Amino acid sequence: MPSLGADMEAGTLVEWLKKPGDAVRRGDIVAVVETQKGAIEIEVFETGVLERYLVDVGVEVPVGAPLAVIRSPGQAAETTAPSGPAPTAPPIVRPSVPPPAPRTAAARTGHARATPAARRLAEARELDLTQIQGRGPKGVIMLADVEEAAAARGAPARAPGAFNIDQMRTAIAAAMSRSKREIPHYYLANSVDMTVAADWVAAANAELPPERRLLLGALFIKATALALKTFPEFNGRYENGVFIPSGPAHVGMAISIRGGGLIAPALHDAADLPLGEVMARMRDLVGRVRAGRFRSSEIADPTITVSSLGDRGVETLYGIIYPPQVAIVGFGKMVRRPWALDDALSVRSIVTTTLAADHRVSDGHRGALFLARIGELLQTPESL
Amino acid sequence: MSPADIRAVLKDELARIAPDIDFEAVDPKANLRNEADIDSLDFLNWATALHKRLGVDIPEAETRELVTIEGALAYLTRKFAARGA
After folding, report:
1. Residues of chain B contacting residue A219, judged by C-beta atoms under 8 Å apart
2. C-beta of residue B25 within 8 angstroms of C-beta of residue B36
């Protein structure tokens, strides 16, 4: 069970996507676990053949516990003798701490693919998801399907929004309490004139079909990732008293989850992707978060977080760092403001950018230069 | 595709970006972005999905027509008819 981020210690296995005997390659999705933040697709770290499962569907598994045995290419097949350790048995990576005895999930929500809202309602109403016909994309069970099943059973459906989001709240509380307890934050803000960038995006979008249109959010992520090349002390993890910088910028994109809570899955290698690709990955991430399904590497890998408030909301965001990361960059709502340009006053589109960073790793001086660099990169959108 | 079919597509695609929203309960004249708490990326994904499923052009300047269910239905019905003509 790979790391599921700073705030999750376990997940419940809900589905195996590969069978014993199947060939698997590094990066393949082999299983799905249900967590406090939704369903997460588990990617495999090794290439080989899935020898056997070590965990059954419905079992809660702590981070670090082995899920299955994978035989590397060339390694002999495991003998199937029922007693005694097989001499050729492939090594099983053990967690440093022995996992607690597996618990069976309280509610029967295994196997079926469902939206988070549908899953919550099914749990609240004690409905078996595997018995409900999904009519969403690829048979995903939608809220309406569960409502219908609940209605068919003759009980009044609970209104959306009344769901128990305690688990998500608990996970966020743990991560944010740790952040506020351990990380000495400092905060900086900078107003950036986005008029040129906004005009550039509008002009580009006028010629593009909807699937290729850009949002300013893509420019924010790309500019932040590019600026990190010059300011590596904001990109990485602080673990066991040491800062470990990351080469690539895996930008965690903060996405609010409908019904409560948020998640910031990684947009991998954001500095090296063309802007259009950054935008495509953002859409894909949001789509999958809405469907309540993302990948384990997206949860485990972010090296910095970007939180963009979009065109609603407020002007300034004071971020809290998601440990073990060391920085979060915020972008507020764009507003029209009087602005001195050369020696004249004009009306420009302004975005307030903010940085919250870990004072154990960096200082305000470098933080200011980093934030200013992001603002500078946003003045030449065509080079992003 | 009839207006009823287009309405079904709208319902289907709204469920994808806002699975917790009951399409039938949404005021068809209300601004969906406020009513259903749709952010700019979800809204763009919605416009993209409608463009792809109905095969009609939706220029950037006209996406605001999609901001209410009633407006979207009228706009897409018109565009779909124009496409067939």
Report:
1. none
2. no
Identify the CATH number of the domain defined by range A116-164: 4.10.320
Q: Is the pLDDT of residue A294 over 60?
A: yes
Residues 6+ apart with CB under 8 A from A1: A10, A11, A33, A42, A61, A62, A63, A64, A65, A66, A67
Q: Of the candidates A142, A143, A286, which has its C-beta nearest B41's C-beta?
A: A286
Read off the tokens for A139.
């048979």
Q: What is the pLDDT of residues B16-40, one digit of tens each?
A: 999 889 999 999 999 999 889 899 9
User: At CB < 8 Å, which residues of chain B contact A?
Assistant: 15-22, 33, 37, 39-42, 44-45, 47-48, 51-52, 57-61, 63
| A309 neighbourhood in chain B, CB within 8 Å | none
Question: Which helix (H) or strand (E) element contains residue B39?
Answer: none
Q: Compare CB distances from A215 to B17, B44, B59 and report the shortest one's residue.
A: B44
Mean pLDDT over residues B48-72, rounded? 94
Q: Looking at domain B3-84, what is its CATH homologous superfamily?
A: ACP-like (1.10.1200.10)
- ipTM associated with this complex: 0.90
Q: Where are the domains of chain A?
A: 116-164, 174-383
**Surface-to-core class of residue A32, CB atoms within 10 Å of its CB (0-12 exposed, 13-18 middle, 19+ buried):** buried
Q: Which CATH architecture fits A174-383?
A: 2-Layer Sandwich (3.30)
Domain boundaries, chain B: 3-84
